[in-house]
């Protein structure tokens, strides 16, 4: 697959008349031209391992670029659209949790989707009255750069219009990570070879239902049609030329749009800078969003855009300090991981417990902003181990939506809590139940009805978070109730049958190619685990927080007998490992299905269900994504090494990887099993999903769960991190060309820094916080001491002893 | 004045093109110019009789005649008149095997300065109305660019536009090709999203923003079979095929099948060869790996793209 948006091999390349940034190590140079002291309020990162560059302009790929280059802070997300627009530009600003069923111009829609807020990014630029666009005149140079380190979307553009006038422009855009209600964009514009009239119009698209504040011409208040959420947006812009006084805009209303217009006589070679700030509030988190947005704007205007940008950059530095993964020896893996961490960080908001992260985060319209199981299984570990506050907020969303999950279980005839397969702001199930063909054919979508493992997945994430953070408050006040209610669901979902086993029938597992199956291994395995944790949770509550237990037991009508029943059902759960082969059957009858050699389809560019057709794939052993293999990873210690190896080798050649979630988990498992060549191939496959040309797959937004999977593949796969109750266990397997893998982790108030090197083969760990144990899977253990960096080397295949080494 | 050119050789078969040409001329707001290339110039009334034109047929047409090699004269006339379209029968001589493109039609197709609409003689002289246009699209930029005039026709006629994609196992080499997605996480979201992207990329590639909303269909199977099956099933009135300009062995499989079996007239649009080099054109038409032809299946009937 080709990749257009790719890391640059060196610093920004020189082309024609563009001035070269002066690259020096350490201090990043200014980007582009600075004349008369006018420059953008930040400097581009030039280290190629920190930037994603899109050279030129390829119109049909514009939607992909917009997704990849989105800026977001977990509260608000802005697609990386061209501010002046193009025929395929689809600018969108999303606010987390703001959904509506009739947004975005489709009156018949009954499924809630993320609302597109009024567009604040639009800048109409004209030279002597002629609009400046990439689609007219000649692009001398055009480059977009996603600065992962600073969380800034940069753009550099040198354009010659039809009259030969050359204009140089630089842009930046950000969604402040330090101040989540603040957005900024800056522009410098230089008439390179002419003097003449320049005009910049900042346009706020005034969607239907928008109203302007009578007192503030820069404010738009917009109310969603059905969900009745108010969104208040205030913008402010200042244009400067050198040390001259700022040029004020005139404000006009033009066909329902609010236009702030700066028009001036520009001098050849002079650079002019426009700074725009936007503040955004909604009635979801503010009683007076208009007043809050206006007050916030006043404060930001006083402080100035430079300070806003500096605080944002500082916030990103802190996040990278806590989360950066360094991979030396593999530039593509390095940029893929940083791209992943950039979008993961951009997606989360520890301050908001009412939202979670949808399948495309806030980077695009795909999947309507809905939240799936991916959030807990694929995304959450990154946050749990690097940003616990963000993980906590996301789990609190599940706690807040627990009533909806209870109601869903009740409606379907079960007890406890069944989380919706797809949820939006309320937690009610919003899975489209069918797709209508134009000929009226109804295609039923069964995932909403049958894919129930999500309840165990949420419980798993709660437990994992609690184990990793020791956040007792969360567990006691929220997490425990989720685990109890999901356990109760599983106790009602199956049947204790005449064979004495507890069977869960008619489900869909993670492998969605096979619908309506009985005893899916993943579902049964996770349900069994959930039932056991339910019983354990009850015991822990009773012992440690008896008042809370009594309160919960009364409110949920939980008896000791019910808790015992959970344990009985867990023990009776239908789940077998073949003692001869070590294999686990994915569901009842899977082994009898047709084997199809996927090697015969090598090089395919289509998913296997498209190639084979729905009927045949259901009769075959081709699976969409890891099912048994995912279970082996999640419940690692429950299985013998032989079972893990046997199952992975059995299911790997049967896995079609028709889901973007799939390759990263196979990378992880292959790495844990020591097959680093296969693991690296899968890691690259996963990385290409958003960074390669995957047929518009990324147009609707980045695959945020896949990006979480990439992080897990590297940390839990290649570094081989896993946890025992009070001990970090390491079993690293670096691919041949990786020289170094280093990253931080957090565990129970401790901060760890792990550093795995290939030459010499060594692991070094430093710790902040209380002492803790660490051991190698095949080597000695030690106790980590705060402030000391311990290292262990392996020579001739044997681990030496842990030794203190300098930081 | 714009024109639509209809060559008639006096055969009954040739007349199948006339109702189609008449409706298309109306759509294009163009004059309908009937051209006869004979051995000699005929008196007007004799010409009318020779061509088999009824008084109704003559209404609204401009009759032209010339002598010489028919194929060359037709191409020349289209050039001279700057015709929008040439509408003609695939074959007019009974001697030709069923389905084969006649020599004149082949020459015109290869050398025409404008798009050509080919009408199979089996269609006869029944009136023709353009209500549904079927546009197979392999996702390549060359095809997308060629579709520009088909989209315009749909917009002018307000006909429904069904865009059909029959993916192949591998990927065309042409840069920026868009085909079915490799990852379909949740079909209820992925397919509508993909369909929308497919249309919008096509807009970008063909340089035309649609004012109409095409329906996107994804079918599995051998492209030539599926395209014809789909056209019949959808009761298409016009099948639009993008063509790389070659009719040799292993080339233009879909088009050749359409000469034999298309249930409706075929609008042939030339792919700009500067957009798609010879290697790609060859590969995309002949070597791409079809999906199991034995079990065609509807993959996505996505409905209207908002």
Question: Could you outline the blueprint of secondary structure elements for this entry?
Answer:
The complex is a heterodimer of chains A (807) and B (306).
Chain A: E1 51-55, H1 62-68, E2 71-72, E3 76-78, E4 93-100, E5 113-117, E6 122-127, E7 130-131, E8 138-147, E9 152-160, E10 166-175, E11 182-191, E12 196-204, E13 210-212, E14 219-223, E15 230-241, E16 250-254, E17 257-266, E18 272-282, H2 289-303, H3 305-323, E19 326-328, H4 331-347, H5 374-386, H6 388-400, H7 402-411, E20 434-436, E21 442-444, H8 447-450, H9 453-469, H10 472-493, E22 495-496, E23 502-503, H11 521-544, H12 546-556, H13 560-572, H14 608-612, H15 614-618, H16 628-634, H17 641-651, H18 662-672, H19 676-691, H20 704-718, E24 722-724, E25 727-730, E26 740-747, E27 750-757, E28 762-768, E29 772-776, E30 781-784, E31 789-795, E32 798-799, E33 803-805
Parallel strand pairs in A: 25-29
Antiparallel strand pairs in A: 1-8, 2-3, 3-4, 4-5, 6-7, 6-12, 8-9, 9-10, 10-11, 11-18, 12-17, 13-14, 14-15, 15-18, 16-17, 19-26, 20-21, 22-23, 24-25, 26-27, 27-28, 28-31, 29-30, 31-32, 31-33
Chain B: E1 3-7, H1 17-28, E2 31-38, H2 44-51, H3 55-58, E3 61-67, H4 70-80, E4 85-89, H5 103-111, E5 116-119, E6 132-136, H6 141-146, H7 148-157, E7 160-165, H8 187-206, E8 215-220, H9 223-233, E9 238-243, H10 253-261, E10 266-270, H11 278-287, E11 297-304
Parallel strand pairs in B: 1-2, 1-4, 2-3, 4-5, 6-7, 6-9, 7-8, 9-10
Antiparallel strand pairs in B: 5-10, 8-11
Helix pairs in contact in B: 4-5, 9-10
